[in-house]
Amino acid sequence: MEQTTTAARVLMGDSLGFHIVFVMFALVLPILILWFEAMSIRRGDKKLEAVAKFWSKIMTLLVVTGVISGTVIALQMSLIWPGILKFGGQVIGLPFMLETYFFMIEAVFLALYMATWGKVRPWLHWFFGVMVWLGATGSAFVITSVNGWMNLPTGFDIVDGKFENIDVLAAMFSLPALVTFFHSMAAYYVAAGLVIAGLYTARLFWTRKRHLDAATHKMDYFIIHKVMIFVGISLIFSGVTADLTGKYLAKHEPEKLATIELHYETGTHAPLLVGGIADGQGGIRGPYVEIPSALSILSCNSPGCTVKGINDTPEHLRPPEYIRIIYLIKMTTVMVVAGATVLYFVLHRWRPQWLRNKALLGVFAFGVSWLGVALVEMGWMLTEIGRQPWAVRGHVLTSDAVTKSHDVLALGWLFPTAFVLLFIITVLALQQLIRHETRLKGGAL
Amino acid sequence: MNLDTNMTWGGALLIYVPIVLFVVAFLYETWLSFRRLRPAAARKQRSGYVDATWEITHTLLVFAVVMFLMLYTQAIDELAAIIYWPTFAASLALGLRAMCYLYIFYVRRDQTRRGAVDWVFALSHVVAAALLVTVVLQVSWFILTSGAPVNTQFIPVFLPGLALVVAVSALPVWVLYRQR
Question: pTM of the full predicted structure?
Answer without folding.
Answer: 0.89
